Amino acid sequence: MASSCFKQQPLSTSIFSNPQPPYKYNLLHTNFTPSPKPEPTLVLLHYSTTSKNTSILCATSIDPPPSPSDQQPSPSTDVSVEVASATRDRRKIVRVAWEKLVRWSRSLRLKANTDVLERTNKVVVLGGGSFGTAMASHVAGRKEQMEVNMLVRDPQICQSINENHCNRKYFPDHKLPQNVIATMDAKTAFTGADFCLHAVPVQFSSSFLEGVAEHVEAGLPFISLSKGLELNTLRMMSQIIPQTLKNSRQPFVALSGPSFALELMNKLPTAMVVASKDKKLAKAVQQLLASKNLRISTTSDVTGVEIAGALKNVLAIAAGIVEGLDLGNNSMAALVAQGCSEIRWLSTKMGAKSTTISGLSGTGDIMLTCFVSLSRNRTVGVRLGSGETLDDILSSMNQVAEGVSTAGAVIALAQKYNVKMPVLTAVARIIDNELTPQKAVLELMNLPQVEEV
């Protein structure tokens, strides 16, 4: 807007000053005229006050608003257009990536070999506990014509499975497939078996296997579901099974990963890992077990899978103690992170791959066992932190918490491989009644500050 002022007589004030009222503004003339092209408009204003010799005449040129065709896009409009374009591009990238993934998945499924499942007629499951029952149910559901024999020692469980098609002790509300049969006779269970799922707790595995060894074929693949270390010998299941059966070439596979038996029974999505030095055997077990609700990955790192599976139970007791003492989320996160590092230090010293510890059978299983109330080992820790004695806790449980026995073996392993494991060692001392949970926390907090590795 442009303006000009024309003086009349000597002026004592200006339009931009603050004259004292009363004052008036009079519109003298405007040149608003229709025109094909808008022109500037001249507005004449007369300003006067009551004082003599004081007046001013102003001419003001007002530019009309531009026509819609002359308007330029505002910065905000440009930004909105750019954001919308970027969003469309991002969605397209995500959609294309997902479509490629789906095509790749379909391609692999079409190429997948199902010969193993087709030619498997019988599977034997050792143990009638919760996880053994869940896996027996899962395998039986893969093929109706397959016979799944559960070798159990409890006559009541045996009767419950055969007469009522359920394991009343662990899953009274879940019906088992008709092709799951329980037996207490080892010869009946092993005769004609194509695979064996070992679900006996680690500390009882040697004695159990010694009692059935004569009925085990030399080439029968063992799939170990047990997680832990034998207390006195520090052996893993990959050592216990072939040594007890007196067959160093007994085919062996370790199955591990974040998997609660109850959720398997409920057919909820689950992912696990099969570990074997024999890649062909690992693939065969993958074909046998993988289904729409159970995803199976394979690895050759047996040591990493077994050590992570054993030590995570001890760490879960520590996490439970933190919960029982009500120490808060900060300490829980710090403790579990430290425990994960300790597991990685020891396992890599024993020859495991660090990537295994960060995968399903490592971090995945650790998170499940440390943070979820269904965990038996975490429950033991919570009750210890709440002030209960270990004897009272164990006597009230109908399932085995492997971490209680494994904790003592951890210290021996740490000394053998010269690895400092303060959190897991503290759990072992609490289990041995040499340290109270409260005192253990104080001692851990007073450890020297060191550089994180």
Describe the strand arrangement of the main beta sheet, using strand numbers: 7-6-5-8-9-10-11-12
Low-confidence stretches: 1-33, 41-62
By CATH, the superfamily of the largest domain comes out as: NAD(P)-binding Rossmann-like Domain
- Beta-strand share of residues: 15-25%
Rg of Cα set:
39 Å
Subcellular location: Plastid, Chloroplast
Domain Glycerol-3-phosphate dehydrogenase NAD-dependent C-terminal: 301-441
Region (Disordered): 58-77
Family: Belongs to the NAD-dependent glycerol-3-phosphate dehydrogenase family.
Describe the structure.
By secondary structure, the chain is an alpha/beta fold. The chain has 4 domains: 2-68; 81-111; 120-300, NAD(P)-binding Rossmann-like Domain (Rossmann fold), CATH 3.40.50; 304-445, N-(1-d-carboxylethyl)-l-norvaline Dehydrogenase, domain 2 (Orthogonal Bundle), CATH 1.10.1040.10. It is 47% helix and 15% strand. The chain has 18 helices and 12 strands. It has helices at 75-111, 115-119, 130-142, 155-164, 186-190, 202-212, 237-244, 261-265, 279-289, 302-324, 329-349, 354-357, 360-371, 376-385, 390-395, 402-416, 422-431, 437-445; strands spanning 2-7, 23-30, 41-49, 55-62, 122-126, 147-151, 180-183, 195-198, 222-224, 252-256, 270-275, 294-299. The strands form 2 sheets. Strands 7-6-5-8-9-10-11-12 form an 8-stranded mixed beta sheet, with helices on both faces. α6 (202-212) runs parallel beside α7 (237-244) and α10 (302-324) runs parallel beside α13 (360-371). The longest helix has 37 residues, at 75-111. The two termini are 69 Å apart. Residues 1-33 and 41-62 have low confidence and may be disordered.
